[in-house]
Amino acid sequence: MDSTHRTRMRLQQVKIHLRYMYCPSSSYRIKMTRPITALLCFLTVAVVAIVLKARGRHNLSASDATLSFDGLQPDANSTSLLPIIFLHGINGHASEFEDIMRLIRVKFGKNAPTMHSVGICDGTCSLRPLPKQRDELIDYLVSNAADLGIDGEEGFNFVGHSQGGLLARAVIQKLPPSLRVRQFVSMASPQKGQYGECKQGRTGLGPEIEKKMARPIGWIAFYNYLAQSELSIANYWNDPRHGHLFRREASLLPELNGYLDDDDDMTDQKENFLRVERAIFLGSSDDDCINPPLSSIFEYVDAEGNATSFNESLEYSKDAFGLQTMHQEGRLVLQNWPGVKHMSWLRANNTSKEKSLFELRVLPHLK
């Protein structure tokens, strides 16, 4: 079946959904009779249809060209690191970490760790719903643990960028005891959700959809059955002005961050997260994609648009998945590095004189 035929089939499914679907104005399946309901649902279907057409296209990786590390010598004092699993962000590719892995191999020489950048859902595949991506990634890691070198008792390092950092945490909170993450590093990830446009166009959703990510209308596009079943970003769209819809409709973040009061699974998720030796959340107040920028370290805005601190967050106060516990035990790192743009975390240096952001801010946290 070619891609054109598959796209036509998916668009036909969209047309079927048009007759009966979940819409923000109702928690039940309703017929498209009211003008306002029809309008809201039409906007959602238009968003999803554009994404379905876009799937299959590819985005450039973080590096414009392969970097050279001429002149960079292995660190004689370096010690071996645990294996590292890298996870790219939305519309990203496994190749985005190639230069960073080359940097580590050159820097550590014979002590370089086993490294793997996950590529099971590259490009627009990463726009698929995050619960599905999470389950597939867990199965991938468990099934290939020996080949990836992560099946040892010592555990492994898990590094995620952008949406990949959020997805990595979702994996950690469901990961079976047979695998252990020692150091978890989240680089510029929407850990408390997304609420606004990605200004540098990283999402790959196209200009039509990115316009609908504006704060006043994002909830219309994302808080419904169809968007939740088709778009990853809908799963963590966190509009503080529509908290009841966020809790009811969003199919990942309310559960992952402990917003649901009747979620019996959170006990296990908290236990799994607390098995991590250290969790490091890195971000920048000048990030040009994550919105609000410091969602990466659990800082956000309230319904009036006022900034809220980490200590004020429900994630911390409720301690549903162990954030407060880890903080009190000295195992939590939250860092804001002003001036850093979203994709800068993935760029490696090409001289021995200038260290990259990854080498300066991320590598010291790995063990």
The helicity comes to: 25-40%
Number of E strands: 10
Question: What is the terminal-to-terminal distance?
Answer: 46 Å
**Which residue ranges are poorly predicted, with pLDDT under 50 across at least 5 consecutive positions?**
8-33, 54-66
Mean pLDDT: 84
Short description:
34% of the residues lie in helices and 13% in strands.
Describe the structure.
By secondary structure, the chain is of the alpha/beta class. 34% of the residues lie in helices and 13% in strands. The chain is built from 15 helices and 10 strands. It has a 6-stranded parallel beta sheet with strand order 4-3-5-6-7-10. The chain starts with a helix and ends in a 5-residue tail after the last helix.
Furnish the topology, listing elements before pairings.
Layout: H1 3-19, E1 20-23, E2 26-31, H2 35-54, E3 84-87, H3 98-108, E4 115-118, H4 130-143, H5 145-148, E5 156-161, H6 163-172, E6 181-187, H7 207-211, H8 218-222, H9 225-228, H10 243-249, H11 253-256, H12 266-273, E7 278-283, E8 300-301, E9 307-308, H13 314-318, H14 323-328, E10 332-336, H15 357-362
Parallel strand pairs: 3-4, 3-5, 5-6, 6-7, 7-10
Antiparallel strand pairs: 1-2, 8-9
Helix pairs in contact: 1-2, 4-6
What attributes does this structure have?
367 residues; alpha/beta; six-stranded parallel β-sheet; two-stranded antiparallel ribbon; globular
